[in-house]
Known about the structure:
93 residues, alpha+beta, Alpha-Beta Plaits
Amino acid sequence: MAAKPLSRAVVTVIGKDNVGILAGVAAALAEAGASVIEVTQSVIEDFFCMVVIVNIDNLKCRLDEVQTGILKKCPGMEVHVMHENIFNSMHRI
């Protein structure tokens, strides 16, 4: 029997670079029950940019609450959390 595909979401975090952003995002995701599958991040001049793909099969809250949790730990950042299906649909156009 084939394994059920993972339910995934795309998380983006962009803003002024400062200490603790990665730690704050990771903590908020863990508290929500989302596990990190893949992450890429870079600092361009003084801007922090990160994209995280997370498994949301064991999520303890709604996706908008994941976004709120990240914003509480990383105030001032631009944060978006989107289910993979919506992300894929938006980029097929």
